[in-house]
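--- STAGE predict ---
source: upstream dedup step, 1 unique chain passed
mode: sequence only
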Amino acid sequence: MEELISIFKAFSDETRLRILKLLEHGELCVCDIVAALDMTQPNVSFHLGVLKEAGIIKDRRKGKWIHYSIDDADMFKRFLLLSVLERIPEDAVIDNQKRLTQFLKTKRKKPYIIEQRDKAFCCGR
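--- STAGE serialize ---
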C-alpha cells in the first residue's frame, strides 16, 4: 500500500509532471532540468528525490554530476506513467521545452561550464 501512495503522491504535483514530461524525451542532467523549469537546483532536486523514491525515475552518476531518466523496468509503473504523460497537453510544457532547447544549444558551445544566474555550474556532458 505504501508503494502505491508514494507513486500517486509523485504524480500529484505539477512540477514533478513537468519534470517527467521533460524526461520523456531522454536522460537529462539536473542542470538541464533547472534551466528548463527556471527553478532553483534545491527545489528541482527535492522533486527529483520524490520521483526517485517512488521508483518512477532512476539516476546515473557521471563524475560529480547526476543524470536522470525514466525507470521503465516495472510494467505497472510504466503503464501508469504512460497514461499520465499522454494526458499532459504539450502546450502546458512548451515553455519548458523551449528553455531546455536553448540551454542545450548554449551548453554544447561551452562544453565544461555554463554560466547561469552568475553561477558557474553544469555537467557539460
